[in-house]
Structures are given as structure tokens and as C-alpha cells.
Amino acid sequence: MATQIIACFVVSVGLFLLSPVRVAPTPASMCTPLKTLNDSLSHRRRYMKHNFPINYTIRVHRKEVFKPSNINSLRLQVKGLDELVLQRLWFQVNQGVLKKIIRVMPERHPSRPYTTELERRFRDVEGVFVQSHPAELFQQELPETIQETWDHLTEESDRVPESSWRLASPKSLLDNFCHTMHCLFSECFASTEAQQDCDQWQKTLKP
């Protein structure tokens, strides 16, 4: 009898360890600024495609081409990866993306007011994110794979090897921005089409 109990316990523990990583709940205070940001992103086609030449691209670091598939890959590489770590990485990635898009636009570019407002709203979300979590969270050591990505993102441009640069359209970068936001802060966007896409790639994590 004791042997059976132990065996059942071992099986139960094994199933627990094999279960997919649960998504960390998004603080309710973040949903309002995230939805405001999402409203701005809903106009990205008009401002990031129609107001630029056909096939226009900008140069970004390869780590700034950040898609739901990249999130999936990181989760597979780092067992037990905390969702908050991925959210922190999302902020770091898109901070650089917005700066690069704004940098290529002259002061009178028709999309510049939109993009600067988008950056302001992004900063608002980041501010709420920081306030919603203990300061110790941002002092914790990052997993090696995440730290490596972080180091690439914060590297001085003149030190980045040519092979690490990619060309991407402003529209595609904001598409990535939007889809990964829906995935990483899913409680605020449960009914969106993008969330359905995220549900699909999250299934690949199941044993």
C-alpha cells in the first residue's frame, strides 16, 4: 500500500513538472494603459505603411525583430521561465524599436506625431508596470539566455557586427509589437484575434 502511495506521488510530481509554464497574471492596473496603447496600434497600417514609400525599411538589431515565435523559442530554451522576465524583455525590445522608427522621420513627417504619441503611451504602460511590481524584481539576475539578448539590445550601435543588423519595415515592427503585447499581457486582450494566435503557439509547449 505504501509503495502504491509513493508511486502515485512520484507520477503526480512528474506530471506537475511536465506541465506548461503558467502565464503570470497581468495586474489589473495595467489593462487600461495597455488598451489605450492598443488603440493607437490599431492605426499602425495608416501611419506606418501609407505614409512611407513602398518597400521602405529601417535597420534594426536582429533581436528587435521580436515575434510570438521568439517568445515560444525562449520558453523552450529556458525551463520555468518567469513570464515577468519576458515582459521586461518586451519593454526593452520595443523601446529600441520606437526610437529607431522616430529617428528616421523628419520633424514634419506626417507619421511623426502619431509615433511620438505611441511612444508616450508605451512609456505610460512601462511606468505602471514598474509601479505594479516590487523593486527587487528588477534587480534579480536574468537567465543567461535572456541576459545575452538584453546585452545585444543595449550594445552601442557602432559595436554591433554587421551580421547582426536586419532590415524591417516600420509596419512589420509595429505588427510584432502588437502581437507580442497581446501574448504577454493576455488577460487584457483575451478576445482578440492575436490572442487566438498566441493560444496556438502556446499549445506547442505542452508535453
Automatic annotation (TrEMBL):
Signal peptide: 1-23
Stored Gene3D superfamilies: Interleukin-34
GO CC, alphabetical: extracellular space
Biological process (GO), any one: positive regulation of macrophage differentiation
Keyword set includes Cell division: no
Record carries keyword Glycoprotein: no
Annotated keywords: Signal
MF term (GO), any: macrophage colony-stimulating factor receptor binding
Protein name: Interleukin 34
Annotated organism of origin: Sander lucioperca
Lineage: Eukaryota, Metazoa, Chordata, Craniata, Vertebrata
